[in-house]
Amino acid sequence: MFCTARTLRTSPALNRSGICSRTFVQLMRNGPPKVHSAYHWITVWVLLAIAPFVWSSAQCQTPPFVGTIVKLIGQAKIERSGKEVDAAVSMQVQVHDRIRTFAGAEMTIELRDGSRLSLSESSAFTIDAFAQARLARRSVLLKLWAGHLRAIVNAIAGSGNFEVHTPNATIGVRGTEFETAFIEGRPCPEVHTCMRYTTVSVNSGIVEVSNPLNPRAAAVRVAGGYETTVPCDLAPTSPAPLGMEEMGAPGYH
Amino acid sequence: MKMPSLCTPLARLRQLLLVAVLLPATAASPTHAASALPYSDFFTAANPQHFSLTLFISGIGAENEYIATHEGFELEQTLTPYIGLVARVVGYQIYQSAGWDTPLTDNPGSRPRNFGVFLGGIDVLPFQGTSMKILGGRDVGDSTGARIEGDFSSWLWLHSRHPINVAFTGDHFYNNGLSSGTIDIRAVLTSSREAMWLIGAGGQMWGGGSQTQVVKEFGPDLGLVLREWKTAIDLQLGYGNLHGYGTIAISRRFGWDEE
Predict the structure, then answer these.
(1) How many independent structural domains does chain B possess?
(2) Phi and psi dihedrals of B138, rounded to 5?
(3) Is the pTM of this model over 0.80?
(4) Is B144 on the interface with A (CB under 8 A)?
(5) Rounded to whole angstroms, what are the CA distances from A38 to A23, A96, B74?
(6) At A58, is the pLDDT very low, low, confident or very high (cuts 50, 70, 90)?
(7) What are the sequence ranges of the domains in chain A?
(8) ipTM
(9) Which domain holds residue B18?
(10) Inter-chain Cβ pairs, chain A and chain B, closer than 8 A
(11) Hey, is B173 helix, strand or coil?
């Protein structure tokens, strides 16, 4: 059926005349129209012809707002078109927004596809791309510039691309819950001399992690319950159980 | 104007001197050192410095009626990426009899014996997941002797499905001449965002002083790490020369980076 409530909502002309719904129902119930309603008959065929175009353009456009801030503790800023404004709960975010949290702050954003992003304190990220077709996710590209980002990817929203990039890691998601941290200015536990690294912890599902600075290095698939580290321009480490970085630190025994 | 020739003996001597001065200076520069050799930053200050506090409490119960509790805290301050300073303060209560970690010279009898232990030393961290502590200190209270302790802990196959931790501890109590050692080997069973489970086995042995023979006890153990709380709970049940025993230990770790 072409005349769904959704099409009517997105097509004010159809909504105003009400032709689509009435005529179509009439057609279905009474069969072909009489001669005196020839005008309606032509209108129906014209509308049927253009309906697919109206439908596809309405469904495939990238909406300007891609998510909403649902939780905010402390102070956070959104940089949009060169201007920086204070973030607040219920504020909508859009593609190319740069969102950053201050010390002690924590923010959760719910994307239109149902995925949730939790940004820890002193973190910054941008939503570089977001495309949806109907309710299904086509592609989401996030860039984490600093700090820690937790993503709970809504698997029901489809199997489209969901990627998080840091300056030295690309994390491709396959319907999952995972956390990414980009740390700069601290020695990497794996390689002390490396002072910028990314850690990826997967709580459920699978992610694929690679280092764009080292295309020859093999990507690593990390399953739920495991984590990997990407030091500088080196290959991601083999997955280790979640929490091994903390356990490896002095003080456990 | 006449340029000085580079081929004169004096010029060559100057070049050699320049090379002799610049070569060691280049080799000693931090960037060169950091990338050239492992451990070349062994004595370089850690950046950032890290300070950690570990609170712990444990209880021991044995069939031979040895019952004791300990509680205390440990502070660790990194100096270089490979060396840290450690200080530990522990309170001991021994309610009945004597066991592997008792520096007392006689049976406590009808009243509990209480003493405190102050230890200090260094922690050497040669590579990720490995720690070697060498501590020394003195008891105060019902025990007054000195003691030394060595702790070793290392994670093997850190990047595997089930990494294994091997830990040894050795103590010598000058108060009663007793020496004791513990061993613990455990593997990561499973891990999630909330918790990590470990399973393994361990035990202790001790002898010397008034203990005429070496006494041993071993058993399986189970560990639970509540990740969000940075809290570890360890249980061990076992059997040995002094029959059955059980231990429980709970520790919580706090850490701060110093900018």
Answers:
(1) 2
(2) -145, 150
(3) no
(4) no
(5) 12, 50, 91
(6) very low
(7) 5-60, 65-248
(8) 0.72
(9) 10-40
(10) 91
(11) strand
